[in-house]
Amino acid sequence: MASPSVRRLLHTTALLLSSISLSWAANVTYDFEIGWVTANPDGKADRPVIGINGQWPVPVMEVNKGDRVIVNVLNSLGNQSTSLHFHGLFMNGSTHMDGPSQVSQCAIAAGSRFTYDFVVDQPGTYWYHSHNKGQYPDGLRGPFIVHDPENPYKDSFDEEIVISVSDWYHDEMPGLIQFFMSKENPGGAEPVPESALFNDTQNLTVALQPGKTYFVRMVNIGAFAGQHVWFEGHNMTIVEVDGVYTHPAEASLIYLSAAQRCSFLLTAKNDTTANFPFVASMDTTLFDSYPADLNYNVTGWLVYDKALPLPDPALVDEFDIFDDMTLQPYDNEPLFGEPDQTVTLSVIMDNLDDGGNYAFFDNITYTAPKVPTLYTVLSSGDLATNPQVYGEYTHPFVLEKDQIVEIVVNNIDPGRHPFHLHGHNFQALWRSEEEAGLFADSNVTSSAFPAIPMRRDTLVLYPDGNIVLRFKADNPGVWLFHCHIEWHVISGLAATFVEAPLELQASLGGKIPQDHLDTCAALAVPTAGNAAGNTVDLLDLEGEPVPPKPLPAGFTARGIVALTFSIVSGLLGVAVIIWYGLAGDQGSPKAVAAAAALAGKGEEEHPHAARRIAEAGLEPPYEEGVRGEEIRPVSGGRA
Ligand SMILES: *[C@@H]1O[C@H](CO)[C@@H](O)[C@H](O)[C@H]1NC(C)=O
Ligand SMILES: *[C@@H]1O[C@H](CO)[C@@H](O)[C@H](O)[C@H]1NC(C)=O
Ligand SMILES: *[C@@H]1O[C@H](CO)[C@@H](O)[C@H](O)[C@H]1NC(C)=O
Ligand SMILES: *[C@@H]1O[C@H](CO)[C@@H](O)[C@H](O)[C@H]1NC(C)=O
Ligand SMILES: *[C@@H]1O[C@H](CO)[C@@H](O)[C@H](O)[C@H]1NC(C)=O
Ligand SMILES: *[C@@H]1O[C@H](CO)[C@@H](O)[C@H](O)[C@H]1NC(C)=O
Ligand SMILES: *[C@@H]1O[C@H](CO)[C@@H](O)[C@H](O)[C@H]1NC(C)=O
Ligand SMILES: *[C@@H]1O[C@H](CO)[C@@H](O)[C@H](O)[C@H]1NC(C)=O
Ligand SMILES: *[C@@H]1O[C@H](CO)[C@@H](O)[C@H](O)[C@H]1NC(C)=O
Ligand SMILES: *[C@@H]1O[C@H](CO)[C@@H](O)[C@H](O)[C@H]1NC(C)=O
Ligand SMILES: [Cu+2]
């Protein structure tokens, strides 16, 4: 691998040369040995984290637009598999480098090597993270910056600054996930983070020089919490969201959901008479309950003079959030025409008969297939256009090349969900207010859609509201559409777009690199056949991984939950509380969630799905006719 200094040299050369010849591009190589290290970014708890080359925070990846990026991964974790996803990069022509395990590759087995190799043809602010088993909140996530010699704002700023923001947990994901999905947590209360971080630390100081203007790239690399971000005494002039340049828009406070990015120009003051705090405040409306002593804010400082004090931030009474729907892309791409295909999905949270709380798009909770979906595309011939081969529980939608696709998402849940599409950014045509109900009932017609819609790759859907998105299927590949709250990825809030499968076969057939196949072999994951691994009869899905059964007939989810509550709180509640108390664990998310469950809070804040589903006129997932005999307990495990 090029040493950092060699890489920098390449960058400088690239920067110089690209102003002369646009076709010049470098090969940028990263060697990443992924392994455990210890870290304590909030100063409250040492914990094992997943680092790269013995270091954590993991490095900021930096390339120029047009570069070819080669990432040689060695998984030295010993006890976990892994994968890397490069969030927001289109992977045009290289869907097999997109990263989600069981979707476009097998996980990288412990001890295995795996090379990601792709060309980056987009400018802007991205990030990379593990896309395997809810792993990235354990540390394997960092910014990915694509510098752009043609940045339309290049003459408007002096320097670039990268700042990540995130939530932070003290416990490791495998244990948190086990609790989150268990019957001890029937309300589906997500573990609450212990801290918020700027740049994987707290009390970050950013030295500013008077009069200069900075291009600040802010990335939410968190697992769960959206963040309100503001800089005292300074406004932000937004110029990029999720890799899409925008016309300038002034904001005093922005909301960044998990996975969203925002770049803005920040102009320093002309005098150096004071330093200014900047704050990220986690969106506590996402938390079902949290400990009274949780500090959900993190503070940093714009430092004009090191000798001057770092003042405490002033309290903000109300978050006056900048509405990203008002942004316009710099390229003025007009609204796509009427869709060739419309996919309508409703977000529902409900219990299955293992007592766990699952997330559904309509009646399907995503369950990873036996064969990674891309490999099914490549091994199913003409049947690749038949969604059946991908299995019911990958929730597949087959798109034809160059179709205009519209996605309508209705939120039948009182939570906020940031939706992300792989392989594309989308035009955001419509976002309702909270409590607006179903899009179909809202009487909104296409005349309400902006002529030049905002584009990004992750958009927040409001509680009980709806959104409408459009994109053009001009990127053959297998692309997930999912909520970017990692807990909801785990509980199944994902669908699969199989885009132009025949074109994909023509371009990728026979070209999956050997190391991709080797890691499948190491994990005994088949690389051909339908979602059930059947290579003979592709329409026979016998044996495909399925979620737990629906709740028994006659039992409503509410009944089960109420039963669980009454039994647990009546008979075991006191014991459980004592047990948590003895474990000295009162402040942990487990204890908090358990306490909330015992207090019935979980249920209160998750009004029962069945009623909402009925109101919405949708089929409940546990409806009688849906409970086929062929449904069996989950075998393959979920991604
Ligand atoms: C990048 O690597 C490829 C394959 O190794 C090689 O063909 C190409 O010339 C390299 N490009 C540059 C700019 O070094
Ligand atoms: C940041 O500063 C606060 C206040 O001084 C302190 O309590 C906290 O421990 C600091 N955080 C870190 C990670 O040092
Ligand atoms: C894997 O090993 C790390 C480092 O020793 C440890 O912290 C972690 O709990 C282990 N995880 C699993 C799932 O065994
Ligand atoms: C944030 O951290 C990254 C690397 O970890 C560094 O490149 C960047 O300069 C830091 N930002 C600030 C404002 O210190
Ligand atoms: C920030 O913008 C708001 C209106 O958009 C304006 O009222 C305020 O004065 C600006 N603040 C600064 C520091 O420029
Ligand atoms: C700083 O001074 C320059 C030149 O007088 C002026 O154009 C600019 O608006 C000032 N900037 C701020 C933030 O006050
Ligand atoms: C976090 O910041 C908000 C906004 O200023 C404030 O209302 C709240 O009291 C702060 N919370 C903590 C725990 O500091
Ligand atoms: C939509 O139109 C129908 C029929 O005109 C009306 O009953 C309904 O209230 C309208 N819904 C909304 C949300 O405006
Ligand atoms: C992918 O590449 C094709 C061919 O260059 C281009 O037409 C298409 O717009 C690209 N799509 C995306 C999402 O980058
Ligand atoms: C979901 O609903 C559709 C349409 O009613 C039905 O065809 C399908 O079998 C259902 N799937 C599951 C898993 O319940
Ligand atoms: Cu979600």
Automatic annotation (TrEMBL):
Ranges that cross the membrane: 560-582
Q: Which CDD domains match?
A: CuRO_1_Fet3p, CuRO_2_Fet3p_like, CuRO_3_Fet3p
Which parts of the sequence are annotated with region: Disordered?
A: 615-639
Q: Which InterPro entries is this protein grouped with?
A: Cu-oxidase-like_N (IPR011707), Cu-oxidase_2nd (IPR001117), Cu-oxidase_C (IPR011706), Cu-oxidase_fam (IPR045087), Cu_oxidase_CS (IPR033138), Cu_oxidase_Cu_BS (IPR002355), Cupredoxin (IPR008972), CuRO_2_Fet3-like (IPR044130)
Q: Which Pfam families match?
A: Cu-oxidase, Cu-oxidase_2, Cu-oxidase_3
Q: Name one GO cellular component term.
A: high-affinity iron permease complex
Q: How does it sit in the membrane?
A: Single-pass type I membrane protein
> GO annotations under biological process?
cellular response to iron ion starvation; reductive iron assimilation
- Could you list this entry's UniProt keywords, alphabetically sorted: Cell membrane, Copper, Glycoprotein, Ion transport, Iron, Iron transport, Membrane, Metal-binding, Oxidoreductase, Repeat, Signal, Transmembrane, Transmembrane helix, Transport
Q: What subcellular locations does the record give? A: Cell membrane
Kindly list the GO molecular function terms attached to this UniProt entry: copper ion binding; ferroxidase activity
The UniProt record lists the keyword ATP-binding? no
**Leader sequence residues:** 1-25
Major localization listed first in the record, in broad terms = membrane
- Which residue numbers delimit the Plastocyanin-like domain? 34-150, 159-307, 366-501
- Name the protein family: Belongs to the multicopper oxidase family.
Q: What is this protein called?
A: Multicopper oxidase
Q: Which organism is it from?
A: Coniochaeta ligniaria NRRL 30616
